[in-house]
Automatic annotation (TrEMBL):
Binding of FMN, residues: 32-34, 84, 153, 186, 226-228, 248-249
GO molecular function: flavin adenine dinucleotide binding; FMN binding; tRNA binding; tRNA-dihydrouridine20 synthase activity; tRNA-dihydrouridine20a synthase activity
Catalysed reactions listed for this entry: 5,6-dihydrouridine(20a) in tRNA + NAD(+) = uridine(20a) in tRNA + NADH + H(+); 5,6-dihydrouridine(20a) in tRNA + NADP(+) = uridine(20a) in tRNA + NADPH + H(+); 5,6-dihydrouridine(20) in tRNA + NAD(+) = uridine(20) in tRNA + NADH + H(+); 5,6-dihydrouridine(20) in tRNA + NADP(+) = uridine(20) in tRNA + NADPH + H(+)
Alphabetized InterPro entries for the sequence: Aldolase_TIM, DUS-like_FMN-bd, DUS_fam, DusA, tRNA_hU_synthase_CS
Site positions for Interacts with tRNA: 111, 198, 201, 314, 317
Name this protein carries in UniProt: tRNA-dihydrouridine(20/20a) synthase
Species annotation: Rosenbergiella nectarea
Highest taxon of the lineage: Bacteria
Lineage: Bacteria, Pseudomonadati, Pseudomonadota, Gammaproteobacteria, Enterobacterales
NCBIfam families membership: PRK11815.1, yjbN
Keyword list, A-Z: Flavoprotein, FMN, NADP, Nucleotide-binding, Oxidoreductase, RNA-binding, tRNA processing, tRNA-binding
Gene3D superfamilies: 1.20.120.1460, Aldolase class I (3.20.20.70)
PROSITE patterns reported for this sequence: UPF0034 (PS01136)
Gene behind this protein: dusA
C-alpha cells in the first residue's frame, strides 16, 4: 500500500516537469465517484495522465476515524491525489484531515454535492448547502489543522433554494468565514427528495453560464466546473471561462479520452499515451495486488472501457468480464484480452 515518500511526492500544484510552469493539477481532474474511483481505478488512470488531479471516492469522517479498515490506503504513484471527505462536524473533519495529511494526500475536498438519502441522513453532502455557516466552520477547522489545500465540491443550488443570490451567499460565506479559495461547482442543482442520485446527475438542467458568472463575481477564487462534460474540446471551451474542469463518468466509461489530456490541457510535450503500453504498465501492480489477495476483477473492471470505439474492443471487454472473476485469474487473462485488440488499436493510431 502507501509508503510515505515525502522527498519524491509531487504536490497538488505540481507543474509540468522539465518545462516552464504552466498549470496546476486542478486544471483538469477526474471526479470522485462512489464505488468507482477506488485505489485500483486511480492507479490505472494515472497510467493515462500524469498531471490531472485524481479524487478518491467520498470517505466519511467516521470511517476514517473509527473504521476498522484502512480507508486512506493508496499508492504513491497516484499523486497528485485528493481525498474527498463526507462529514459536517468541524472537529471530526479536522481530525480526518490531519490523518490524511500525515498519509501524504495532496489535497482535501469536502463533499457538499451528493444528494442521496443515506448521505443526507448523515448530515453531509448537498444538504449542507442550506447551512453555509456550518460548511465554513468545517473548512476553517480543516485549514487550521493542515497545510495542504482544502476545497469544496458543491452544486449551484438545492430544491427551491436555487437562485443565483443563494449560490453567491453560500460561496461568499464559505470563502470569507471558511477561508476557502477553491470550489468545484457541479452546474446542476440537486433535489434532496424525489430524485435518485442518478436522476440528480441527469434531470436538473445544466447551467454553465451561472458558473461562468460566479467566476466573474468572485475573480479571486479558483473555480472549476463539473457536469455533463464529455470531450477535451468541451473542456477547452469551459477553460475560457473558469480555472478548471472536472469530468466524471465519461472519464471512467471512456478512459481512453485521457491519453491526450497532458498535451492538450497541460502543455506537456511528451507523446500521447499508448493505451496498449498503459495496460502493460499495470502488470507489476496487478501481480503485487494478487499476491496480497486482491481479485483480478477488482482491478480490471476499471479498464473495460479503455478501447472504446476500436475494433476488437468488444472482445477485450468480454474476455475480461468472463474470466477476470474466476478463481486463480492472473495477468495472463489481461494479456489474452489485450491480444484481441492491440493490433487494431495500433493501426487506428498509426
Amino acid at each position: 500500500m502507501h509508503e510515505n515518500k515525502e522527498l519524491n511526492k509531487p504536490s497538488c500544484s505540481s507543474l509540468i516537469s522539465g518545462a516552464t510552469p504552466l498549470y496546476p493539477s486542478n486544471r483538469f481532474s477526474v471526479a470522485p465517484m462512489l464505488d468507482w474511483t477506488d485505489r485500483h481505478c486511480r492507479y490505472f488512470l494515472r497510467q493515462l495522465t500524469q498531471h490531472s488531479l485524481l479524487y478518491t471516492e467520498m470517505v466519511t469522517t467516521g470511517a476514517i476515524i473509527h473504521g476498522k479498515g484502512d480507508y486512506l490506503a493508496y499508492s504513491d504513484e497516484e499523486h497528485p491525489v485528493c481525498l474527498q471527505l463526507g462529514g459536517s462536524d468541524p472537529h471530526d473533519l479536522a481530525h480526518a484531515a490531519r490523518l490524511a495529511e500525515a498519509r501524504g494526500y495532496d489535497e482535501i475536498n469536502l463533499n457538499v454535492g451528493c444528494p442521496s438519502d443515506r448521505v443526507q441522513n448523515g448530515r453531509f453532502g448537498a444538504c449542507l448547502m442550506a447551512d453555509a455557516t456550518l460548511v465554513a466552520e468545517g473548512i476553517k477547522a480543516m485549514k487550521d489543522a493542515v497545510s495542504i489545500p482544502v476545497t469544496v465540491k458543491t452544486r449551484i443550488g438545492i430544491d427551491e433554494q436555487d437562485s443565483y443570490a443563494f449560490l453567491c451567499d453560500f460561496i461568499g460565506t464559505v470563502a470569507d468565514r471558511g477561508e476557502c479559495d477553491t470550489f468545484i461547482i457541479h452546474a446542476r442543482k440537486a433535489w434532496l427528495s424525489g430524485l435518485s442520485p442518478k436522476q440528480n446527475r441527469e434531470i436538473p438542467p445544466l447551467d454553465y453560464p451561472r458558473v461562468y458568472q460566479l467566476k466573474q463575481d468572485f475573480p479571486q477564487l479558483t473555480l472549476a466546473i463539473n457536469g455533463g462534460i464529455k470531450t477535451i474540446e468541451e473542456a477547452k471551451e469551459h477553460l475560457n471561462h473558469v480555472d478548471g474542469v472536472m469530468i466524471g463518468r465519461e472519464a471512467y466509461q471512456n478512459p481512453g479520452m485521457l491519453v491526450d489530456i497532458d498535451r492538450q490541457l497541460f502543455g506537456s510535450t511528451t507523446p500521447s499515451v499508448d493505451c496498449v503500453a498503459a495496460v502493460e504498465a499495470m502488470y507489476p501492480y496487478i501481480e503485487k495486488e494478487l499476491a496480497q489477495g486482491t481479485y483480478l476483477g477488482h482491478i480490471t473492471r476499471h479498464m473495460l472501457g479503455l478501447f472504446q470505439g476500436i475494433p476488437g474492443s468488444r472482445q477485450w471487454r468480454r474476455h475480461l468480464s468472463e474470466n477476470a472473476h474466476k478463481a486463480g485469474a492472473d495477468v495472463s487473462v489481461l494479456e489474452q484480452a489485450l491480444a484481441k485488440v492491440s493490433q487494431q488499436y495500433r493501426e487506428s493510431v498509426s
